Amino acid sequence: RPRVLSGIQPTAGSFHLGNYLGAVRQWVALQDSHDAFYMVVDLHAITVPQEPAELRANTRLAAAQLLAAGLDPDRCTLFVQSHVPEHAQLGWVMNCLTGFGEASRMTQFKDKSARQGSDRATVGLFTYPILQVADILLYQAHQVPVGEDQRQHIELTRDLAERFNGRFGDTFTVPAPYILKETAKIFDLQEPAIKMSKSASTPKGLINLLDEPKATAKKIKSAVTDTDTVIRYDAVEKPGVSNLLTIYSTLTGETIAELEKKYEGKMYGALKTDLAEVMVEFVTPFRTRTQEYLDDPETLDSILAKGAEKARTVAAETLAQAYEKVGLLPAK
Ligand code: AQP
C-alpha cells in the first residue's frame, strides 16, 4: 500500500474548518487505502512563542480532535512529532542541504515574518519547512495530504529528496502533494479573498470546530456574500457564495450543481440558514467526541505512545540510512 504522511499544529486550541476540510478529512479517508502516518507537530508549534502548559494541553487536544474526526489508531499511526527524535535529527541534515536563498523563497515565511515583524520571527520559523521535509522523508511517504498553502513546502521536499538521492545515492522516496481541488483552500467568511487561517483571520471569519455551535451558526449567517442575489458557484465573481457552497457540498455530499438547483430562485439567507444547520449537526458530535477523549487522558496517551513506537521503527531505519550515506561515523 502506498504511504501517506501529514501533520497538524497543536497551537490553535481548536482546529478550524479549513484545517478539517483541507486536510484532516482526507486523512480519515486515506486510512483504508494507504499506510497512513499522522502526527501532531509540536516542534513546528514552538517556532512561535508558546506557553508551556498550554502547549502540552493543546497537543493532547489536537490528538483528541483527530480521533474525534475519525482517525482510528488501528488503521493509522497517530503520534506526536517530538516523541520521535529522528525528526529533529534528520531535520539538521536537511538544513545542511538547503540553500539560504532557497529557504528565503518560502512565501509562508515571508507572510508570517512580515506579520510578526522580522525582529520577532525566529530562525526556527525560517527553517520550519526544512524540518517538514525531514518529517515527510523519514517515512518514505508517497503522498502528503495537505491544503494548497503547503504546496510550496512539498515542492521543497521533492527538491531536497532528489538532491540527496543525486548526491549520496538513492535513499528517499520523492513524495507528491495530495491536494483535493475542491477543498484545497477554504476562505475566510468575512474576507473571502484570503484563506481561513488561525493567525490571519478575524474571529468572525474563522470557524473553530470546538466553538459553541450557536456561535458557529451565527458566523455562517453573517458570512460576506455579494450584492447580486443568484446562488451559483463562481470563485472569481462570487467568492463568498462559492466558499459557502464548497463547505456545504463537502459536509453533505451534495454536489455543487445539486445545490445550485436546490437554491434556484432563493435568497442567500435560505442558503445560510440551511448551512448553519449543517454545520451545527457536524460540530455538535465532534465536540462531544473530542471531550470524551480528553476525559480519558490515559487512553489518549497510550494511543500516542503506541503510535510513536510504530513511527520510530520506520523513522530510525531511514535516519540510519541517511546518516550512513552522508558519512557520519556510526557509534559503536
Ligand atoms: N484555509 C484552509 N483551507 C484548506 N486547508 C487549510 N489548511 C490550513 N488552512 C487551510 C491545512 O490544514 C493543515 C494543517 O494546518 P496547520 O495549522 O498545521 O498549518 P497552518 O497552515 O499553519 O494552518 P493555518 O490556520 O493556516 O495557520 P497559520 O495562520 O499559522 O498559517 C495543513 O495541511 C494546511 O494546508
TrEMBL record:
UniProt: ATP binding residues: 9-11, 18-19, 147-149, 186, 195-199
User: Would the keyword Protein biosynthesis turn up in this protein's UniProt record?
Assistant: yes
Per the record, what are the reactions this protein catalyses?
Answer: tRNA(Trp) + L-tryptophan + ATP = L-tryptophyl-tRNA(Trp) + AMP + diphosphate + H(+)
Q: Which InterPro entries match?
A: aa-tRNA-synth_I_CS (IPR001412), aa-tRNA-synth_Ic (IPR002305), Rossmann-like_a/b/a_fold (IPR014729), Trp-tRNA-ligase (IPR002306), Trp-tRNA-ligase_bac-type (IPR024109), Trp-tRNA_synthetase (IPR050203)
Signal peptide range in chain numbering: none
Pfam families noted in UniProt = tRNA-synt_1b (PF00579)
Residues binding L-tryptophan = 135
Q: Give UniProt keywords alphabetically.
A: Aminoacyl-tRNA synthetase, ATP-binding, Cytoplasm, Ligase, Nucleotide-binding, Protein biosynthesis
Which terms in the Gene Ontology molecular function aspect does this entry carry?
tryptophan-tRNA ligase activity
User: Which EC numbers characterise this protein's activity in its record?
Assistant: 6.1.1.2
Give the subcellular location: Cytoplasm
User: Which PROSITE patterns does UniProt cross-reference here?
Assistant: AA_TRNA_LIGASE_I
Q: Would the keyword Oxidoreductase turn up in this protein's UniProt record? A: no
Top-level taxon of origin: Bacteria
State the span of motif ('KMSKS' region). Answer: 195-199
- Its chief place of residence is cytoplasm
Q: What is the similarity comment for this entry? A: Belongs to the class-I aminoacyl-tRNA synthetase family.
Q: What does this protein do?
A: Catalyzes the attachment of tryptophan to tRNA(Trp).
Q: Which HAMAP family does the annotation name? A: Trp_tRNA_synth_B
How is this protein organized at the quaternary level? Homodimer.
Q: Which protein, by its recorded name, is this?
A: Tryptophan--tRNA ligase
| Origin species | Streptomyces flavidovirens
